[in-house]
Amino acid sequence: MSEEMIPIDLEDLMHFNCNSENQCFNECCRDLNQALTPYDVLRLKKNLGIPSQSFLRTYTSLHYGPESGLPVVEFKPNPDSGHECPFVTPKGCSVYDDRPASCRMYPLARAIARSRETGEIAQYFALIEEPHCKGFEHKSNQKVREWLKGQNIEKHNRENDRLMELISLKNQILPGKLEGVLSDKFYLALYDLDEFKEQIVNNNLLYEFNIPEKIKESIKKDDETLLNLGLSWVKYMLFGIKMTFGEQEDGD
């Protein structure tokens, strides 16, 4: 399937609309090769009301990124269904409120760059025009900035940018495939959150870091705190960066 990437600015008009009346409705949910971020997995398993381990086993497959060498979780391919998303239905997405960031962004692609001097993140966007998509026939006075706000993508981007920072460090400091125990711990801390919590709370994982009691209590009920702890632990394991507790890195 050929596609065209067209640079676009936040102040440009977003001539796009996806709805059930479009002839191509649900076509973008098929022929998938879709990676899931840890925050995507967190949202989806909570939406379904199942443990992370059950979600990962039922709906995903694991491989290693060709550039990062890190474990990558994707929707499990099903040739019998045309490699469609496991959550697509004739009426659309059954987990729409918690759909992955890449689904929220479509038909936009987003790239980021972090300033070495200030640490600030700059965003760059491109429009993905695929032949099958008829949503581009819609004309609108809505700007890209306004369209993105309607997709509730900001929280996803903040969480996923933390992962991108970790991947950038990995590429600089530890090029090549992450294997063995380190790979297992990366997967545990970032994707299999319920098992990670079990290991911390009941099996004394991370006991040597003297995690504050407030954080121990918080991770029992708040997966986002748990994921932030996992990211901090992975940075310590891979790069020796001191673990931090409590406040999220961007001050949220």
Describe this structure in words.
The protein has a domain at 4-157. The protein contains nine helices and eight strands. The protein has helices at 38-48, 52-59, 101-105, 144-150, 154-173, 180-190, 193-203, 213-219, 223-239; strands spanning 4-8, 35-36, 60-64, 71-75, 88-89, 92-93, 108-114, 121-129. The strands form three sheets. It has a three-stranded antiparallel sheet, with no helix packed on it.
Most strands sheet: 3 strands, antiparallel
Whole-angstrom Rg: 19 Å
* 3D shape: globular
Helix percentage: 25-40%
Counting DSSP E segments of at least 2 residues, the number of strands comes to 8
Ends distance = 40 Å
Q: How are the strands ordered across the major sheet?
A: 1-8-7
Structural class by helix and strand composition: alpha+beta
Fill in the keyword field for this structure:
8 strands; disordered C terminus; globular; alpha+beta; 3-stranded antiparallel β-sheet; 252 residues
Could you give a quick summary of the protein structure above?
By secondary structure, this protein is an alpha+beta fold. The chain is built from 9 helices and 8 strands. Residues 247-252 have low confidence and may be disordered.
